[in-house]
Amino acid sequence: xxxxxxxxxxxxxxxxxxxxxxxxxxxxxxxxxxxxxxxxxxxxxxxxxxxxxxxxxxxxxxxxxxxxxxxxxxxxxxxxxxxxxxxxxxxxxxxxxxxxxxxxxxxxxxxxxxxxxxxxxxxxxxxxxxxxxxxxxxxxxxxxxxxxxxxxxxxxxxxxxxxxxxxxxxxxxxxxxxxxxxxxxxxxxxxxxxxxxxxxxxxxxxxxxxxxxxxxxxxxxxxxxxxxxxxxxxxxxxxxxxxxxxxxxxxxxxxxxxxxxxxxxxxxxxxxxxxxxxxxxxxxxxxxxxxxxxxxxxxx
Amino acid sequence: xxxxxxxxxxxxxxxxxxxxxxxxxxxxxxxxxxxxxxxxxxxxxxxxxxxxxxxxxxxxxxxxxxxxxxxxxxxxxxxxxxxxxxxxxxxxxxxxxxxxxxxxxxxxxxxxxxxxxxxxxxxxxxxxxxxxxxxxxxxxxxxxxxxxxxxxxxxxxxxxxxxxxxxxxxxxxxxxxxxxxxxxxxxxxxxxxxxxxxxxxxxxxxxxxxxxxxxxxxxxxxxxxxxxxx
Lengths: 300, 230
Fold this sequence. Notes:
The structure holds 2 protein chains of 2 kinds. Chain A is α/β, with parallel strands linked by helices. Chain A has helices at residues 42-49, 72-77, 94-98, 100-104, 109-122, 139-151, 169-186, 197-203, 222-227, 232-238, 286-289, 293-299, and strands spanning 3-11, 17-26, 31-35, 57-62, 65-66, 79-83, 157-161, 189-194, 206-211, 215-220, 248-252, 257-261, 267-272, 291-292. Chain A has a 6-stranded mixed sheet with strand order 6-7-8-3-9-10, with helices on both faces. A 4-stranded antiparallel sheet of chain A has the order 2-1-4-5, covered by helices on one side. Chain B is mainly alpha-helical. Chain B has 11 helices and no strands. The longest helix of chain B has 35 residues, at 8-42. Chains A and B meet through helix 2 and helix 4 of A and helix 6, helix 7 and helix 10 of B.
């Protein structure tokens, strides 16, 4: 289930251009993150995939099939969608919210509810919450229900529009880890939208950094982007020149460890350096091989 | 009191007649207002037109309407349907605004998310927007119910029996007790309807009962909007 954008443009009737000319291929069974400041068109791009928004020009293809030829309602039912503030139906119980799409597509209610219980397990929710209403759940629990609902029809594609944007940092980190775990288990083609570069680097196999008008500033794996920012904009955006990503080896810690400090002089972590030399981790994700203690402290 | 006891039969008959005029008018008003209110919530033009027409209708004096409706529809003035339609017109005049508020109160995120899950427009209306508009619709229909029951008394002026017949009778016979009885019965009837509507609301919207915050917002939005409606 790869997704391809071909020269996609979106102009609104009032003349504003949300997306100028956007082309990209989103590989299947991995997570691609669109990251950028507000107004860069990332949500618009996401919504073009399930035809919540239709492009003014260009094509979007799912496995080489142009989505403009697919009836929107049918298309949306086979694509999972998770949004900020969960968007759960407040008048339906948790279990019925999760069972929404299977019921829409004609699965008998009892069966859909039974399956939904399994999904609650899958996203780490206690089954005792099944008959609560969304309003009785915490923000983090609601987002988990949102994810379970997105997965209920077992879609090949999962679209996530800043799903963790409105929860507190501790819960956000929990949800991010859950999503990584889920993704390892189920391997959906996931398109994730966020304005948080840390989240993008954590979750994305492919990260797409967007400027205004949906212009691609850089596409690549987190390692590639961090190691070789394509422009000053990217370097600035990912904070490569300043702050906690600009690490300097400071002094010897205990044993072979060397202390790393960020641009502010704040201790960022330790790196192993046998005989004073830092060995490159090779193919592994360099940015995550450091035991980055401040990262976690900062998020908490 | 003696008069009341000796006229229990009349009291009952006229109360039933009053209910017979009010209930169809309230139901008709509700059923017509919901789609109109939905249209008003989706289109600015529809909103402007419907609200203006509603305001104009509401300013027509009741008695004039009772004379105009039979002329316009070609039904005899003494037909109770005449009163029902006049009452329904007033009900619609109030309820369209309320229904528009109700649909506007549905969270845009929830509506979008329903679309994204794959609800068709029709499914979204019946399964998402209508139930979520419920609390504000209920607030509106409660106002309509009370106002319709009070207004239904004017039917007596053109000879359609209702609790209003006690007022005309009291006037003609200079017998105030009868007017007082009529007023009390109208009040009781309005209160009974209100309790019934509230109970139906609780039954149909169990999710709303548990989130008191929403309930508070509903009454704050709906009530002032109509208090100044006339």
